[in-house]
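chain below, 173 aa
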Amino acid sequence: MLRHDVDSLSGMKGRTDGADHVDVQSLDGTISLKAFTAGVLSYRPGWMTALWHVRVWLLRLLGQGEREVPDMERFTEQTLPVEVGEHAGFFEVVASDGETYWVAEGRESHLTAVLAVSTEPLQNGMRRFHLITVVWYLNRVGWIYFNFIRPFHHLVVLCAMRKVLSLERGVKK
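prediction:
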């Protein structure tokens, strides 16, 4: 999906303005937006915890203060924060209709990031899930940090999406 097409997704109008980085990963499934988003946010296998430790080390090395690996939060379709101002980890919900889009923002000293899920209906009860990441660098450290973690970010996003949708298929068997 091209960057200018992101604006046409539910909940995304104007949310990429001036961004330094935009990426979208898309997969199809039948679960609800809330179930999908909760699953993605709750995904943390052991290898991902190791990546969190690398993140902590990198930010300390870049002079961004003492950091710690955050406790893992588990969300369900019923417990996913969807009201503006509620928090999902270090992300704050900035927009959500609970059905077709969920948008949250995280701010740190070196960058601001939006994590969003937008859906579009397909045939036979299917829907396409778009997981969107938008990043603005606040300083040179933001650029260094994000470009270091970018390959891992893509891996984490894709693995989380695939895991959530594979669990969905596994339940139906």
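Residues 140-172 form the longest helix (33 residues). The two ends are 31 Å apart (CA to CA).
thats it, cya
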